[in-house]
Amino acid sequence: MTSRRAERAAHRAELSGAGPVREERAPAPFPGASARFALFGEVLLTGLLVTVVGLLVVTLPAGLAAGIRHMRRHVAAEDSRLQLFWADVRRALLPGAVVGAVALAATLVLLLDIDLARSGMLPGGPVIEVVGWVGLAVVALVLLSAAGAWTPESGWRAALRAVPGGVVADPAGALYLVATAGFVGVATWALVPLFLPAVGCAALAVVAIPVRRRGRA
User: Fold this and answer.
1) Gap between the Cα atoms of 89 and 93, Å rounded
2) Inter-residue contact 138 to 164 (CB < 8 Å)
3) Number of other residues whose CB lies within 10 A of the CB of residue 81
């Protein structure tokens, strides 16, 4: 019984990257994601952290950028101390607030257009409504893509400039990001507290979507 327990413990340590590899084989690409329950807990923690940082709404981009970097470190089994998350928040906060303010203003304008289109007060209401929803999808795509590309060294300008190239290089990934934003919106609309786990899942999705093709290669 003792030997079986030791064998299972060694197997778990090998999968997580915390222990030695018992067989000659390539290491797992994302050792931090091998423990599913621990990954679920990290998603919830990341969602909580992003929510706390994003309480002012305009600070949400900074929270997303820091949360995505925290999640990326976790799945790679790198140093993912919370001190590093808060250090990222401090670097991303003020410039990210400008990005958040622009995104908030665009979102409010688009929501107003959708509401007016549905009221029948505008000619061509159905077309305007479609344009409004497409605009919201674009805002969400830019926000998630830029947050995923942000680094303390390059800053927000470089992250925003990288968005068009990323969309062209991986259009299917862009659609996945839009679907991710839709999931967060629907979950929050159904029950506001669900924003916390949903935004944590969004941070994990931003990490996973760009590398999915590498996993199939």
Assistant:
1) 6
2) no
3) 10
For residue 120, how far is the Cα from the chain centroid? 36
| Sign of the four-CA dihedral 128, 129, 134, 138 | positive
User: What count of other Cβ atoms lies within 10 Å of the Cβ of residue 61?
Assistant: 30
DSSP 58: T
Mean pLDDT of 158-176: 95
Query: Cβ atoms within 10 A of the Cβ of 76, count?
Result: 16
CA separation for the pair 29, 120 (Å, rounded): 53
pLDDT tens column, 117-148? 888 777 878 898 999 999 999 999 999 999 99
Q: From CA 73, how far away is CA 69, in angstroms rounded?
A: 6
CA dihedral 206, 185, 94, 163 (to 10 degrees): 40
> Token pair 């001190």 is at which residue?
83
- The CA distance from 110 to 126, in Å, is 14
Sign of CA dihedral 108, 113, 114, 120: positive
Q: For the segment 95-125, what is each residue's pLDDT rounded down to a tens digit? A: 999 999 999 999 999 999 999 888 877 787 8
CA gap 33, 185 in Å, rounded: 25
Global pTM? Answer: 0.83
Residues in the chain, total? 217
Instruction: Say how far apart CA 135 and CA 85 lie, in whole Å.
Output: 31
Find all residues with CB under 8 Å of 97, minimum gap 6, and list them: 56, 58, 59, 61, 62
CA pair distance 84, 74, nearest whole angstrom: 12
Rg of the chain (C-alpha set): 20
